[in-house]
């Protein structure tokens, strides 16, 4: 396998420019094929294929053109040769053919054994990951159930002691605090999720393939194992005369949080990336990658952006489900975290910031 610049190699199968080193060159026709366009798996490409295997690899088209070997060289036994040959003689006559076959079988069995061991290791890692995730989910469910029970008890208590305004205010604050805690728990369950917006939509599309293509365009190569789920959110928009319906947002859950952070960071670096070359319908258009927020945090973020625009604040963003604002760039600029709509009034409306807003 020759190493060449990715700009000089074009896959003979899909006719796309090869952007990584996962390719094989046919030893007969010298055509270059991307690994995804061959029958070679990623595990076999990196772990079991030796340098000799890669140098002697043949594409499907060349293998189909090779003539099949027959038994035309086998001598015909005469009618009068009614002789019983010894078993050792037949084994000696075919030993040369069996040696080559045995060596190929040994290599293939070793390759299969290595693949099985690699699959076993991956299954063990996946099992451990799933077990850890299930334990975390069970713990979150228990805490949510406990918070829900506490909120129900507070609501019953508020109905019983409606005569005291102070107690009522205290209960309202407690309920608001419980709702905030529930929202934070829900946001923790979305730490591995991202949202892709403004991606053209078509009927019968493979959303998972679209995600892999756009991630590769951003410089973050993902595999099918890295994407837990990918789906369009919301109802299908009804077509209107004269205007094209806005594509729905794609919600993606990744296997690891590090992949989510890497994808968001790549989208910030490649600001202005479009769908050109991704095989999507329509004219190329800019798409956006953001972290996925709960409904409450999404509404708070929209209101914070609108307030920042009205008051001339230049920066409003989210990180790990938290909303932040900043008036201007520079080391002396103060960053504020917005917990609720009351904090918006404290930041933009009053001369002094309320106590619930964090200065960072």
UniProtKB/TrEMBL annotation:
**What residue stretch is flagged as signal peptide?**
none
Q: Which one Pfam family would you cite for this protein?
A: Baculo_FP_2nd
Which segments constitute the FP protein C-terminal domain? 294-345
State the residue spans of region: Disordered. Answer: 63-101
**What UniProt keywords apply to this chain's record, in alphabetical order?**
Coiled coil
SUPFAM superfamilies named in the record:
FYVE/PHD zinc finger
Instruction: Tell me which InterPro entries the record gives.
Output: FP_C, Znf_FYVE_PHD, Znf_RING/FYVE/PHD
Work out whether the entry's keyword set contains Coiled coil: yes
Q: Which portions of this protein are annotated as coiled-coil regions?
A: 109-157
Q: What is this protein called?
A: Uncharacterized protein LOC128200084
Q: Which organism is it from?
A: Galleria mellonella
Q: What is the lineage of its organism?
A: Eukaryota, Metazoa, Ecdysozoa, Arthropoda, Hexapoda
* Annotated gene: LOC128200084
